[in-house]
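Supplementary Methods, section 5.1.

A reviewer requested that the exact input to the structure prediction be made available. We therefore reproduce it here, unchanged from the version used in the analyses.
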Amino acid sequence: MYTQDTICAVATAQGGAIGIIRVSGSDSISLVDQIFKSATGKKLEFCKGFTAHYGEIYNKDRVLDQVIVTIFRAPHSYTGEDLVEISCHGSTYILQSIINELLDSSPHIRLATAGEFTKRAFLNGRIDLAQAESVMDIINAKTDKEAKASLSQLEGNLSNCITVLN
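The structure derived from this sequence is encoded token-by-token as follows.
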């Protein structure tokens, strides 16, 4: 499994009502735990995968935003690694403030490069190359036909056809 470091990035277009920050890597849960306080007081490290938790992201003693944090545990995540998604308000200021808090929380986290979450999904065997390529096609789809074809490829239909031919 590819787990050299922990990465983070805004995973949604900025300027919408809701923004999502994705954090992936072996330290993702503990790093988010450093800046997140759950409304229940429960630490994320003790939470099961596929769970969502309401709380607040902090900069020292100051609340940055009220958020919902979703936990995905390896290998059952998009990247195949421990993964956390922070759903927050979509303002550019809030998104960047949370990213800055993550980056300031540890030297073991860095900004993801473009396509790096999908690259990790491929390297960890979660998706094949045809599926990885389809992610960008879905993002760039401008018609219903393009979206359907790209989604079909992401679901593995092209890869399955190639496997049958071999």
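Strands lie at 6-10, 18-24, 36-38, 51-59, 62-72, 83-89, 109-111. These observations are discussed further in the main text.
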